[in-house]
Amino acid sequence: MAESKQPQGSGAQASEAQIAVHWREEEYVPPPPKFVEQANAKDPAIFDRFSEEHFPDCFKEYADLLVWDEPWHTTLDTSKPPFWKWFVGGKLNASYNCVDRHAEARPDKTAIIFVPELESDEHVAISYSELHRRVNEFAAVLRDSVGLKTGDRVTLHMPMVPELPVTMLACARLGVIHSQVFGGFSGTACGHRIADSGSRVLITMDGYYRSGQMQDHKAKADEALEAARQEGQEVDKVLVWRRRDGQYASKTPMADGRDFFVDGLLSEHRGATVEPVSMPSEAPLFLMYTSGTTGRPKGCVHSTGGYLSYVAGTSKYYQDIHPDDVYWCMADIGWITGHSYIVYGPLALGTTTVIYEGVPNYPDGGRPWRVAETLGVNIFHTSPTAIRMLRKVGPEEPKKYDYHFKHMTTVGEPIEPEVWRWYHSEVGKGKAAIVDTWWQTENGGFLGSTLPALQPMKPGSCGPGVLGVYPVIYDEDANEVPAGSGNAGNICIRNPWPGIFQGIWGQPDRFVATYYRKYNKDPDSTDWHDWPYFAGDGALQAADGYFRILGRVDDVINVAGHRLGTKEIESAALTVPEVAEAAAVPVIDDIRGRVVEVYVSLKPGFEPSKALEKKVSAAIDTQIGKIARPKNVWIVPDMPKTRSGKIMRRVIASISNFADVGDVTTLANPEIVDSIRHYVQSSKVARDDVPRELTEAEFEEIKKFGGE
Ligand code: PRX
């Protein structure tokens, strides 16, 4: 059996303060002068404009980037806390702002460049006037052929193709609330989201390329409809885009009277124009589902005016987007990053946004750099997982290509300083300003980042709060943890900001309980100062005001920058009839940050087997998608439990990570710990799957996982 390891200089009892003391402060890296010269935000007076004294009116600067049909009368309405409303009285249309006004001003300007995954397929440039035509025609389909009206919800389950923003913008044109589900999620996961949002229409695609293979995506639509039906939601119509003109990439039949090819419907609406519906600022623009601590996903409701203002403003100042830049965010539009920083932000500013269909390393680790060279990309945006992977498969690749990034982003997970430095020196060739943007699905846009021309970078730290956002760290008793104290705590945002979501679809109490109850100072107060937003992340603030995000403090596992709830994974495992109990835990992974391992115990009469492990894994694939697929499924005789019967996830997480399990004497069944450890760790040693030694922060995360 392998020995348990502990991080050096730490121990099972290491306090937050000790962790911080061991944390080496990184040196500042200044932004390149050439970047500073041309930056949208290069005058430090901007900090004064967005100081607390000017809150909330400072955000007029963001709202003024948009065209409003009617001006707002109240910048921030706090009358029903914490359901904040921004720019109340104002009316606008998001589709008009992202399409029409640019199509009028610069019709031939490229809006979207689509890069198919197969390198033998040419990229496709879509101008703003072309985008306008396509959005209008599809809006006509949705309104006149499908019968969708303002306020209806429609679920999209689409891959990374230009038809996805066309669909989103056509919905926005009509005030129809879109809910795009990540294309990699399973049909069942999509079905749960259809049911939760009450969608009667699903928009999907027949197939798409991933790692060189055409995927049968339409098959998931049939599963989704079945899953939705089981929750009482009927879907009347399924609209199917086709990846290749005139071909059908799926093996599933089109259901007569229910499934329609979009190209067929479009042919009835050639040249149609649809007047954009003028929407109140606080009307929902879209839902974006994310994982929480309970099994049911949360549909985050994002507003029209506040959200669009916020993503336009942050795209301008933090992404430094100018209209003539070529901007490439390699995230998936199925996540919030893609909504805000592939579609709505860049298009609101009238720039060119690149959409890449496939995986970053197809067919090899040089692909992103070839795309950048060919298209003249000068702003690049990706996640630490992608950076780690590209570094592993092709550390020398970037220098082979002649591209020039002025600006780069990392988002979604903490980035190790060493990985940051490779991104900076190799990918950015030392010539790009980097922003490490910390935020969440709920937030609409960035919360923590350096302002690239005005604040130096510090590897591994996201930087201070962004303009007009005032973060604070509280301890468990709501005492403020001062900057530079060396102590970690819960990062919160003291004030509302325009991109904040307006609630969880259909679950108002859960919204208040999850994000505001913990640090609310007075439930009757209508003063925003009494309602700090609880982000659910642990963090540490250095003396210079920069934050270092440590990771989730709840039962959420961040896999490759994507949030997965342990309960969701466990519920999926429990659909296997032989399984009695299930527990999902994170395992440190050098590429994906964290991966999932699942422990299950069986009902009486069943024996462990490889087949059963596979069955559990397959259930998770079906219920959620491959992204949640566990690295290992461990079938154990029993779970370590407290006397009240709660599964001690921290104990099994420690076992999976070869960390010290800490004190287990208070468990109801302490003897089980050694036998599980022996089984799991010796199997891992045999598979050559021993994780590297944990850092102190990782050790703390594992030690606390799942609470007491
Ligand atoms: O733990 C934080 C981590 O990702 C979580 C939010 O995940 P999601 O809602 O899927 O949105 C991801 C993209 C915005 C956060 O609670 N996270 C996000 N960005 C960073 C980060 N952790 C460290 N550094 C970041 N830059």
What does this structure look like?
The chain is an alpha/beta fold and 708 residues long. The chain has 21 helices and 29 strands. The strands form eight sheets. A seven-stranded mixed beta sheet has the order 5-4-17-16-18-19-20, sandwiched between helices. A seven-stranded mixed beta sheet has the order 12-11-8-6-7-14-15, sandwiched between helices. The N terminus is likely disordered. The protein binds adenosine-5'-monophosphate-propyl ester. The site of adenosine-5'-monophosphate-propyl ester has 24 residues, from α12, β20, β23, β24 and β26.
Task: Compile the SSE list and pairings.
Layout: H1 16-22, H2 33-38, H3 45-49, H4 60-63, E1 74-77, E2 85-88, E3 91-92, H5 94-105, E4 110-115, E5 124-127, H6 128-145, E6 153-157, H7 163-174, E7 177-180, H8 187-197, E8 201-205, E9 207-210, E10 213-216, H9 218-230, E11 237-241, E12 259-261, H10 262-266, E13 279-280, E14 284-290, E15 298-303, H11 305-317, E16 326-329, H12 336-348, E17 352-356, H13 367-375, E18 379-382, H14 384-393, E19 407-411, H15 417-427, E20 433-437, E21 471-474, E22 488-493, H16 508-515, E23 533-541, E24 547-552, E25 556-559, E26 562-565, H17 566-573, E27 579-589, E28 593-602, H18 610-623, E29 632-635, H19 649-656, H20 671-686, H21 696-704
Parallel strand pairs: 4-17, 6-7, 6-8, 7-14, 8-11, 11-12, 16-17, 16-18, 18-19, 19-20, 28-29
Antiparallel strand pairs: 1-2, 3-13, 4-5, 9-10, 14-15, 21-22, 22-23, 23-24, 25-26, 27-28
Helix pairs in contact: 5-6, 5-7, 5-12, 6-7, 8-9, 11-12, 14-15, 17-18, 19-20, 19-21
The structure holds adenosine-5'-monophosphate-propyl ester.
